TrEMBL record:
Keywords: Lipid metabolism, Membrane, Oxidoreductase, Transmembrane, Transmembrane helix. It is found in: Membrane. It comes from the Eukaryota. Pfam families: Cyt-b5, FA_desaturase. This is Cytochrome b5 heme-binding domain-containing protein. PANTHER family: DELTA(8)-FATTY-ACID DESATURASE 2, FATTY ACID DESATURASE 2. GO terms for cellular component: membrane. PROSITE patterns: CYTOCHROME_B5_2. CDD domains: Delta6-FADS-like (cd03506).
């Protein structure tokens, strides 16, 4: 009976937001996820970020209909008393329900098959070119093809990480390890740890790890206050070194993207050999060992050290295109400080993301991530459906006066460089209260 229900208020729910005491609300029912946090397939970080509030929209975005049956064992017996669903959230939930009714989440298309075919072809060409040809030019082209192979492999790993490729969870897990760890050398455990946090707290300066690149990059002057990263649990110090590097970030942006893969390798090793809880640690380490067996072996087959360096640099340079794409989607988006909140899921995703417009025949190049807003709203949706739902998402943004930014690849680059330059020029202002550095001041005395 309705009168027999037990209720708590939103303020009371907020009190349950600490490790060991994590409560959330989904469609008005309150659940205790304190013990479940460590078993959560998406990691415990996102539960910590959203604890103490209603998470219905995020739950709908990330979970299939079959996940609802597992909530009953976590039910506290309480219902949320005074939570009001926004009109945007109501429309978003109706949209998700309609997409589910149409079967769009199950219609996966042939994108993964085409990507696997491309990867297989490129891998054969690279190995054949390195082993059978003595031409320096051929070896250069092979390095570039390896970079393209890594790009396609990352898209497969990304889609499998969101369980888009196959219906079986186990098959998706295998695809993640093969495409991520074995093929690209980047741990899927590291990727899921950071990527899920990014999705949940899109463009939060202190919660989203994809914006926390101090001392190399700062997309907002708020980083100049040495904010604390909730994700990494440490202070992002804006010291003299950071100020110097950030002062020139609009010039160093592209060169850093070329060597960005080195940072991903380092982050992978730091996580896998850390003391923290890493899901499937042994399997991830085995996958990484596969990569660090075949890749150095392939490079060693080149006749000279100069060609080996050329080969590696060429592969990294091509892969930089993907690193650039990832940053274009968010660097020039709106940012905020603080945790993600419960009733503005759609608004936060729209504000923090940027779509890249392209022709249909270029969809393979962007791996579906040119529809970044659509992907953030429906991360489980196969990439072949993102173009289909784009007009519907655009109309909903228009209805609620929310931004829907879609720029060409060139325009997105201009927008990103403009954002970096704006922060760089302000970082050069010597009135910023950071310790004086004589070397920095000498280099910048005359602007």
């Amino acid at each position: 009976m309705e009168g027999e229900r037990k209720y708590i208020t939103c303020e009371e729910l907020k009190e349950h937001n600490k490790p060991g005491d994590l409560w959330i609300s989904i469609q008005g029912k309150v659940y205790n996820v304190s013990d479940w946090a460590k078993e959560h397939p998406g990691g415990d970080t996102i539960l910590f970020n959203l604890a103490g509030q209603d998470v219905t929209d995020a739950f709908i975005a990330y979970h299939p209909g079959t996940a609802w049956q597992y909530l009953d064992k976590l039910f506290t017996g309480f219902y949320l008393k005074d939570f009001k669903v926004s009109e945007v959230s109501k429309d978003y939930r109706r949209m998700a329900s309609e997409f589910s009714r149409l079967g769009l989440f199950e219609k996966k298309g042939h994108g993964a098959m085409y990507s696997i075919l491309i990867i297989t072809t490129l891998l054969h060409l690279v190995v054949y070119g390195v082993l059978k040809s003595e031409s320096v030019l051929v070896h250069l082209v092979c390095g570039m093809m390896l970079g393209a192979l890594w790009i396609e492999g990352a898209y497969i790993g990304h889609d499998a990480g969101h369980y888009q490729i196959m219906s079986s969870r186990k098959c998706n897990d295998i695809a993640q390890i093969l495409a991520g760890n074995c093929l690209t050398g980047i741990s899927i455990a590291w990727w899921k740890w950071t990527h899920n946090a990014h999705h949940i707290a899109c463009n939060s300066l202190d919660y989203d790890p994809d914006l926390q690149h101090i001392p190399v990059f700062a997309v907002s002057t708020k980083f100049f206050n040495s904010i604390t990263s909730i994700f990494y649990g440490r202070e992002l110090k804006f010291d003299p070194v950071a100020r110097f590097l950030i002062s020139y970030q609009h010039f160093t942006y592209y060169p850093v993207m070329v060597v960005g893969r080195v940072n991903l390798f380092i982050q992978t090793f730091l996580l896998l050999f850390s003391r923290g809880n890493v899901p499937n640690r042994a399997l991830n380490i085995m996958g990484i060992l596969v990569f660090w067996t075949w890749f150095p072996l392939l490079v060693s087959c080149l006749p000279t050290w100069s060609e080996r360096v050329m080969f590696v640099v060429a592969s990294f340079t091509v892969t930089a295109l993907q690193h650039i794409q990832f940053t274009l989607n968010h660097f020039s988006g709106d940012t905020y400080l603080g945790p993600p909140t419960s009733n503005d899921w759609f608004e936060k995703q729209a504000a923090g993301t940027l779509d890249i417009s392209c022709s249909t025949w270029m969809d393979w190049f962007f791996g579906g991530l040119q529809f970044q807003l659509e992907h953030h709203l429906f991360p489980r949706l196969p990439r072949c459906q993102l173009r289909t739902i784009s007009p519907t998402v655009k109309e909903l943004c228009k209805k609620h006066n929310l931004p829907y930014r879609s720029l060409s690849f060139w325009e997105a680059n201009v927008s990103t460089i403009r954002t970096l330059r704006t922060a760089a020029l302000q970082a050069r202002d010597l009135s910023n209260p950071v310790p004086k550095n004589l070397v920095w001041e000498a280099l910048n005395t005359h602007g």
